[in-house]
Amino acid sequence: MKLFEAFDLKSLRLKNRLVMPPMCMYSAAEGTGLVNDFHLAHYASCAIGGVGLIIVEATGVTPEGRISDRCLGLWNDEQLEGMKRLTDMAHSLGAKIALQLNHAGRKSQTSVFPHLAPSAIPYNEHPVNYVEMTPAQIDAVTEAFAAAARRADRAGFDGLELHAAHGYLIHQFLSPLSNRRQDAYGQDRSLFLRGTVRAVSSAWPAQKPLWLRISATDWLEGGLTPEDWVICLNALKVSIDMVHVSSGALLHAPVNVYPGYMLPLAEEIRRGTGLPVIGVGLLDDGLLVSALEEGRCDLVALGRELLKNPNKFFDLALRFGRRDLIAPAYERGFADRV
């Protein structure tokens, strides 16, 4: 069964195909961006629980680029020590660990200003408290991504994910619904993404994988589509190694949510680019197994389920006849189950 098989991507070798996706915890001490005991315990629980790949939550590349004042950051060397503790912990417990780098753009709710955006146009019902980025600000944010990538490597992360989804800054530049610039960054909305990927690639070791999390569709007329993403990703294939396929969150949108509702998007991206993909979207046990077996995706991510049950992998191992994969220290917890 593919769920229990190893997966290789450049220097990254995963012991199984189950991924803990990045989920904001809003648990850093306000304003610091520093890893604390909560983060160590939170991520350790899934490492002990057998998850193959842990992707650490959206981490701001600048103070104002965090989603909130209590999000993690990696804009200075002071934040390195905690990140190194995270990677050492994960590795000691048999897991691989990656970091998601992000700039929230107009969705930032930090007390640090100015908040930035491609265009100063309304975001849902919120007031426009952000400014249209100047070319100098664009260059500074691009370099901040590269600097954070260098720190992530020094901290020992096995992979790096750039957040180009869920209505944050890279996504904002890409979508015609949020980017109405009149300069080169509006004429070619992929320009900021391409510049960021290029800068990060130059800062991140070539042997370690680099990938994107994308919103394959905005779920809105006139917004991004999977076809747009296939064109964009094919132009980036020399620099990126995988795609983590999500959707939406640029603006309020009507979405028909059901188990596996984003798997068709992952399939389309995989088919159109030939890149490996991480599938996500309210996957139940049967769906996550069938999605892998049928080649709809290469890895599967469980978010809410792992928050409820960090030992979900052991449940799956028991259900599908691989009791041998349950950690010996936890075996008694499954002894009376079939």
Describe the structure.
The structure is a single chain. This protein has about 350 residues and is α/β, with parallel strands linked by helices. It has a single domain, classed as TIM Barrel. The protein has 11 helices and 12 strands. It has helices at about 35-50, 80-90, 135-155, 170-175, 185, 190-205, 225-235, 265-275, 285-295, 305-310, 310-320; strands spanning about 5-10, 10-15, 20, 55-60, 95-100, 115, 130, 160-165, 210-215, 240-245, 275-280, 300. An 8-stranded parallel barrel has the order 3-4-5-8-9-10-11-12, surrounded by 6 helices. It has a two-stranded antiparallel ribbon with strand order 1-2. It has a two-stranded parallel ribbon with strand order 6-7. Strand 10 (about 240-245), helix 8 (about 265-275) and strand 11 (about 275-280) form a beta-alpha-beta unit. Helix 3 runs parallel beside helix 6.
Topology:
Layout: E1 7-9, E2 12-14, E3 18-20, H1 37-48, E4 53-60, H2 80-92, E5 96-102, E6 115-117, E7 130-132, H3 135-155, E8 159-164, H4 169-174, H5 184-187, H6 191-203, E9 210-215, H7 226-236, E10 242-246, H8 263-273, E11 277-279, H9 285-293, E12 299-301, H10 304-308, H11 312-319
Parallel strand pairs: 3-4, 3-12, 4-5, 5-8, 6-7, 8-9, 9-10, 10-11, 11-12
Antiparallel strand pairs: 1-2
Helix pairs in contact: 1-2, 2-3, 3-6, 7-8
Mean pLDDT: 97
Number of domains: 1
Beta content: 15-25%
Terminal residue distance? 19 Å
Helix content: 25-40%
* Count of helical regions: 11
Question: Could you name the ranges where pLDDT drops below 50 across 5 or more consecutive residues?
Answer: none
| H-E order | EEEHEHEEEHEHHHEHEHEHEHH
Strands of the widest sheet, in order across it, are: 3-4-5-8-9-10-11-12
Sheet having the most strands: 8 strands, parallel, barrel
DSSP strand count: 12
Shape: globular
